[in-house]
Amino acid sequence: MPTIEENYDVVVVGAGHAGCEAALACARLGFETIIFTVSVDSIALMPCNPNIGGSSKGHLVREIDALGGEMGKNIDRTFIQSKMLNKSKGPAVHSLRAQADKADYSRTMRQVLERQTGLTIRQQEVAEIVTEGDPARIAGVRTVSGAFYHAKAVILCTGVYLKARCIYGNVSQYTGPNGLMAANHLSASLMDHGIRLVRFKTGTPARIDRKSIDFSKMAIQLGDEKVVPFSFSTDPASVQIDQVPCYLTYTNEETHRVIRENIDRSPLYGGIIHATGPRYCPSIEDKVMKFPDKDRHQVFIEPEGRYTDEMYIDGMSSSMPEDVQFAMYRSVPGLENARIVRNAYAIEYDCLAPGQLKNTLEFKSIQGLFSGGQCNGSSGYEEAAAQGLMAGINAVRYMRGEKGLVLLRSEAYIGVLIDDLVTKENLEPYRMMTSRAEYRLLLRQDNADLRLRRYGYDVGLISREQMEALEEKRKAIRDEIERVRHVGVSPSGQVNEILASQGSTPIDNGSSLIELIRRPEMNYDLLAAADPERPDLPEAVREQVNIEIKYEGYISRQKKQVEQFAKNENRLIPEDIDYDLVPSLRLEARQKLKTFRPASIGQAGRLSGVTPADVSVLLVYIKSRR
Amino acid sequence: MKDTIAAIASGMTASGIGIIRISGPEAFHVLGRIFRFAKSEKRIEDQKANTIHYGHIFRENETIDEVLVMLMKAPHTYTAEDTVEIDCHGGPFVMQKILQTVVENGARLAEPGEFTRRAFMNGRIDLSEAEAVMDVISAGSEDALKSSLKQLGGSVRREIADLRDKIITETAFIEAAIDDPEHYDLDGYGPTLLENLGKVRRRIDKLLATFEEGRIIRNGIRTVILGKPNAGKSSLLNYLLGEERAIVTDIAGTTRDSLEEHIRIGGLELVLTDTAGIRETGDIIERMGVDRALNLAAEADLILVVLDSSRAFDEDDEKIFDFIREKKAVILLNKSDLVPVISSSDIRERTAAPCVIISAKEETGGEELGGLLRSLFLSGRIGMNEETMITNVRHKEALTEAKRSLDLACGSIEAGMPEDFISIDLMDAYAMLGKITGEEVEDDLADTIFSKFCMGK
């Protein structure tokens, strides 16, 4: 039977947030790329919340941007409200979060893909992966129609679509989100190739018609007056737009009563759903059952876009039956007459069991096969995009015969994310959190460019001009910090006036400028008038100078810890090590090491069940083999 | 650059000589800070390699011991690093105290098998011996873990678990607020946190005080007398008290129902607690007394078990033998006027604890008991034994580190630093306390956040 047969360098399976980044990276680096999606209309779809960013996720978007990814630029073009979270806390946990116009976000990203040379978009379900040789190497993919696409590298970005099932009450439909077609064939092919899959679950709340909501009973939530863009290349002036408001309301005893009385009809509690859901994003029924002492829960009402009346009911995801959904939403102040446009539902899907990927996101068992995004056991658009980008970059490096790009935990949230995904036995979809980053004082959203742009440049996703601009910025920061170190301040009336205006104790004797900047209520900018020699510097430089000076003690402490940490990260374990031949390892450690096959001594030490003594034994063994 | 490590290198029995070994680039400097020549102002760092010197080890201005020190220069040493060996008097106290002084002056405690590992990594041990090296490391760590956990009394372990729980709960709240700032608010949290951390700090101080190496000398050996009712406990107590009546002091004003007395015997000070007799009983009040006795005994440094030689063993005796199996105990076989039916060899069949024949009535055996206690103490078998010495220093180090992290956290709060800085120090303290109980941090923080705080939109 005649079938289509084509040749590409790279096949990307799935066009969500991971797939888009992966495909763009490969095509931009000169590799002929084809991206498959079950529906071209769902490219860069935001099927759940309408936000990009948030605590620690905003860091990821900044890092994606620093490396040459697209997400930051795309949200800067399509956001309708933006906030810097945690402004009252330390700079390490400041995080951007924007409300997207979902349709606009998706359409704009699709346009970026369409305009990318070397990138082909194809609406078709990939049914099989095809490998050759021993050890197995990827050869291409076959679609449901039987067409064969040869490829040197294949990147799986299947998100939540593998054998997806959407559920509310006793209604269960074998579709992806929003009724989109599920990918029902690929799972079997992956398993035929020895890939182990597990079932995860997540969920989304209802969408309610704006016209049926009484906003007067809710608190209005506005965006920041001065919007900060996500992308380092976005002109800040271009993002000072008219923003749309969100609203805050609360559940109450009545809501909780409705849920409790119907809990046996919940597919989660009734046993229809067995897959593991995330604890950080619990359904409202989970919140009510697990935190019975809380008499109310927050509910944010967020627009899905400028040109739709659908409102996202943030905080009330659910898989309760339809009638219960109506009753519980309508018990919330302002939603008494709510008309549901789309029901809330839970979704179940196949994703990779842990331990099968290298830290380059390539499969350990199949050369040239990569995987990025929610199918790796993560959750969230930003986590997906970050992995997609890294999978794309590493597919390129694989094709070029180069060493993979692995970001360390001490270099990037992306490093933490991928390291956790490849070394941990996650039992639920993994979400980024700032507390997961041991060195978070160094991994700030404000310095993502300083940390990572060089990698993007080395890979080829960042231009020479961009790199030069960054080096200039780096130099300006260094010079200014050096200059400030030697600035003294005399106790003049002007200085004490500045101090007094911030409620800071006036000085009687001369002081150093640094000392004054380090006062909690002061900062570099506030003291401009006390520092007449100060050069005129861009805001981005001033920000770095302020942070580096103000928190120097803490920052240098973490830098010292990083030196220790990096030692073990750079001690690589030979890829062909046979753990059965290492004497004196404890059984548990041996099993973990065999399952995860860590790349470095550092990574080995992070596996649960591997003790410092096991690591010592491993060091001795590696040395003795050399 | 590698750091400098130290450990007790000799077995820690009460042998004549104990050896503390220091290895690493700072080894000579560490010694320089704590060693003084007996009769000259020379500096030990200026001495030639491969020489032996006589002098004293000081901690602040207190002389700890007279010692011989051996200086060995890299690479011709076991580890191929600069190495110092301090030969001291072999008592466990002295060795522990010297090791602690060494650690306070720039070395860190060696991991199990670390000297051997360094020797190997530095090429001092033949590749063919790699397997043996791995065995040493692996076995060493098992032993260390076992002795470390053995050393940890139930109440100390519970206390540390509780402190860890307090710390991680505070941290989780901060992190929950960072992760979900629209939901959890940290406004005005500083003073509350400071107060709560102050409590934790004070409890660590208390723990540190109980670990103080001089505790036993200063406060006496906590001793509990156990025995069946009418085994002769009270008469025995009176006999022991009578022997040194002059220094007996009643502790007045205590709320304890058990009687607590200080006695001096064999040159040691015992804080002696008499308890209710141990026997199966249905009487609630007596039951409470028995439970209390067993609880006290569980936490004591030493248990004196009084047996009546005229009565055959029964279930209650077996229960006592069972109870003291893992504890430091001495059996006192009290001779009554009646015909003895059990002998010391009967006792040896049932327990490894040493036995002394004593007669309260005839006032004999007290001296033997004193001698036995002194030898037990000097050999480290009372209060601290060979393995627990090292772990003791480890525990103390970990507690001190935990406290240092809490100090930093409190300092940051007082300096008005944002909370996200503080939680980093709190997690360090948490991890340190976990080292004592052998627990890793893993996903504890995320787990606590999700279990205690309702997260996420």
Helix content of chain B: 40-55%
Count of individual domains of chain B: 3
Strand content bin of chain A: 15-25%
Question: Which structural class is indicated by helix and strand composition of chain B?
Answer: alpha/beta
According to DSSP, the number of beta strands of chain A is: 23
Give the overall form of chain A: globular
Would you identify the CATH architecture of the largest domain in chain A? 3-Layer(bba) Sandwich
What is the largest interface, and how many residues per chain?
Answer: A-B, 53 and 47 residues
CATH domain fold name of the largest domain in chain A: FAD/NAD(P)-binding domain
Q: Approximately how much helix is present in the residues of chain A?
A: 25-40%
Task: Give the name of the CATH superfamily of the largest domain in chain B.
Answer: P-loop containing nucleotide triphosphate hydrolases
> What is the quaternary state of this protein?
heterodimer
Number of helical regions of chain B: 15
Structural class of chain A: alpha+beta
Nearest-angstrom radius of gyration of chain B?
26 Å
Radius of gyration of chain A: 26 Å
**Helix-strand pattern of chain B:** EEHEEEEHEHHHHHEHEEEHEHEHEHHHH
Strand composition percent of chain B: 15-25%
Query: What's the total number of strands of chain B?
Result: 14
Distance between the termini of chain B: 48 Å
Taking the sheet with the most strands of chain A, its summary is: 9 strands, antiparallel
